[in-house]
Amino acid sequence: MREVYLVGAAQSPFGAFPEESYRSLFATALEGALDSVDGELDRTSIDEAYVGTLGVGGRQLGLAGPSVTEYAGLDGVSCTRVENACAASGTALRQATLAIRAGAADVALAGGVEVMTDTSGDRTRYWLGVSGETEWERMAGTTFAGVYAQMADAHMAEHGTTREDLSRVAVKNHANGAHNPDAHLGFECSLEDAMAATTVADPLNLYDCCPTSDGASVALLAGREAAERLTDDPIRVTGSGQASDRVGLFQRSTLTGIPAAREAAEGAYAEAGVGPDDVDFAEVHDCFSIAELMAYEDLGFCERGESGAYVRRGATEPDGERPVNLSGGLKSKGHPIGATGTGQVVEVFKQLRGEAGDRGVTGLECGLTHNVGGSGGAVAVHVYEGGWA
Amino acid sequence: MREVYLVGAAQSPFGAFPEESYRSLFATALEGALDSVDGELDRTSIDEAYVGTLGVGGRQLGLAGPSVTEYAGLDGVSCTRVENACAASGTALRQATLAIRAGAADVALAGGVEVMTDTSGDRTRYWLGVSGETEWERMAGTTFAGVYAQMADAHMAEHGTTREDLSRVAVKNHANGAHNPDAHLGFECSLEDAMAATTVADPLNLYDCCPTSDGASVALLAGREAAERLTDDPIRVTGSGQASDRVGLFQRSTLTGIPAAREAAEGAYAEAGVGPDDVDFAEVHDCFSIAELMAYEDLGFCERGESGAYVRRGATEPDGERPVNLSGGLKSKGHPIGATGTGQVVEVFKQLRGEAGDRGVTGLECGLTHNVGGSGGAVAVHVYEGGWA
């Protein structure tokens, strides 16, 4: 199989940017990604681009990919928009990986963008709801928080997971995000505040839910030959896994985990020839606190039902055995839907290269990203390792 | 490069089907595609699925891929939705091709679906308009017919193309579509009627414009080993090319051709090791009559500016030197946006296998599909050849 290297990655800040557009945010991310490459890479050397976006707000629903790449100076670059709801750019990353493996590209771009903060109230619920199951969930009034609340409720009932376990995810991710200048909600929160926040969808409260954000992110991949010219500090994408499941939660085989995440992880681990124990750190899809706990289990970081205990003993803290969401995660860094998947890649890139500033953790060699669409209708998992093959 | 074979393809009828949904139409196309495979292929043997759709009507904008594949019994199959406006499923075909070449799939599905006929008036214009350039075309009031009318006007002024040349495209495609039981507008029209129809956007009249349709289509691709089990009559996908350009017509280098089509064709020809002269027949993207004329030139079937003469001398008639749109094309068969690209593949599959009924042409060995997104912001071109490599 042709080797794939991550040679550059960057994001725009995530947050609320009324003065920016979906196109200017993407242009910022691309500029940063090109700057992050060690060698000389110009726009015309990009052979293929994949842009993930849900298209919240309905600005440009057709040619949503080319409409952002052309603005960023890539109008001669073949572009495809991919969409798997919140896993859009994790999916884009997989397509860019396959394009290089297939020999269709020597350098490929995977990125994503979303502008959400100018869409409010009912329209926000509509745009988020369209990623859920339409007929039996959204049109029956179920919100996304409501879907994940059912999962949290079931997890608490089946496994004894507690209110405090959920809040510990939020506290950790906010503490991490406070060191990330690109985070949307870059402030710390106390366990007391996190536990006492206003209910959104019982048992989930405000601190269990990520914000809606504006932002963009770009990752640049290359085959071996191009990577040798472009990077001094190689990072390989050694595993790519993707899986789908029923879009509606009510049609899944379990409420307390995400089967597609397990399957995508199995695929990524098998390709990389590693297991969960080999993963030093991960960026996981914590759209809600319960989602991060389920991710620990789905990715094999701990046994099924043990994620509460796992977070309690600090395993995923920056100084724990396997740091998770050093970037702040969706919870603190923010969740501009299409930008989230390759946003996770940006953190892996920075951590593995020792460029994560005061949130950097030393000694990391193997990273993982876990990007979930909807409540688990599609999941993309990727594994990254430092060094040449 | 790993060989890619087209082992099955089918479409639902294209037309107006108020009793069907986007999901039931896709299920019909999948069922037909599985039935069209010579060997035994079940749903669980499909490794990866790519579904193209614009999502007209806003039914399911997130997880739009998995929401149709799950309904068709593919909920365990990894699915990605791709979108490049009207080139959505041509783009899906390219991704499925790359997935097989990359070794990520032994059997991959490319398909598309759209339901449009329940969206009327202003909403139709909105949903079509979102595939055009938003800020300077759509919001200024330009419709899609208006954009192509500008191209037609320029082509007539620059190259002397006539009203009759445009109408000949419609007459030919309706004559072909009259033999296609799956066509939306499966009736013949006379040159007189085609020339005298009501103006839509001068110089384009009603017969220069394809209809909006409901429909779905599915193509099944396989690597060599799987293909040996699955087909008795092999068809290779020997070339895949895709290119992007500015979304807005006003920002392109020409009004009288589609530069991305030329570039995508160059890519597909180079991979296949063939040139335009080797192409025996083609399905091209005749969303408007002028688009088919420009396609002749962009694909190299005739010299630039010569497409009027080319259609006049009957070169693209079923008994001409290079039949084009034997299916009826978008004009007669219909244009359910997301389903169009792989709908073209269905005709190639049937013609090369001699299964096209009374519209079948004998002696065809090399086919081409040409699928255009928007007015040329993205184009996918594929080349197909009969026989094992």
UniProtKB/TrEMBL annotation, chains A, B:
A single GO BP: isoprenoid biosynthetic process
InterPro entries: Thiolase (IPR002155), Thiolase-like (IPR016039), Thiolase_C_2 (IPR055140), Thiolase_N (IPR020616)
Record domain Thiolase N-terminal: where: 4-223
Pfam families: Thiolase_C_1, Thiolase_N
Organism: Halorarum halophilum
Annotated region (Disordered), positions in chain: 313-337
Thiolase C-terminal domain segment(s): 241-385
Official protein name in the record: Thiolase domain-containing protein
